[in-house]
Structures are given as structure tokens and as C-alpha cells.
Amino acid sequence: MVEQKNKEDAFDEFMEMIFESWTWARLNALERERFISWMNWMRNDTQVKHFRGNHSQRWTQMNDLYHMFLEGCGYKPSGWRGE
């Protein structure tokens, strides 16, 4: 039987992965601060549960948000902000 990951751990695990990524290394301090602030607001919003479902579903939602954020920062798959 496949072990299911705890859905409550998805946010912290995702953010840890992002902080280690090459795209994160190319964001400036203000962009990083904005993304962290935005994600923390979404995680702690008392009115709406922004991240729902199991671990995998939550991971997918957060990955989509990070991708949209990078697109807003002008992300390109290769050569983005240097080598």
C-alpha cells in the first residue's frame, strides 16, 4: 500500500522546495517578500480555505500559483535573468 502524505504538511514542504529552486534564486528581495506574504495570507485567510484536498492536490494548486507568479515576473524557461 502506498503511504499517503499528510495534507497539512504540503504548504511547508512546497515552500521549502521553492526556496531551493533556481527560479527562487533569480527573484529579487521584493519579489520574494511579496510571494511569501501572499502565500502566507492564502494559508491563513480565515474566510476562505484556499488550499484544499489531499497533499498532491494542494501541491498542484501551490505549484500553479508559483508558476503564475513567475509568469508575472517575466519568467522564460531558459536564459531567464542570466545563466
Give the proportion of residues in helices: 55-70%
Structural class category: mainly alpha
Oligomer: single chain
Over all CA atoms, what is the radius of gyration?
14 Å
Amino- and carboxy-terminal Cα gap: 43 Å
- Number of E-type strands: 0
Percentage of residues in DSSP E strands = under 5%
Helix-strand pattern, N to C?
HHHH
What is the helix tally? 4
Q: What form results from the Cα inertia axes?
A: globular
| Largest sheet properties | none
Would you give an account of this structure?
The protein has 83 residues and is an all-alpha fold. It has helices at 10-19, 22-25, 29-44, 55-72. The longest helix has 18 residues, at 55-72. The radius of gyration is 14 Å and the shape is globular. The mean pLDDT is 90.
Please give a handful of descriptors for the protein shown.
globular, 0% strand, 83 residues, mainly alpha, 58% helix
Q: Could you give a quick summary of the protein structure above?
A:
With 83 residues, this protein is mostly helical. It is built from four helices and no strands.
Protein topology:
Elements lengths: L9 H10 L2 H4 L3 H16 L10 H18 L11
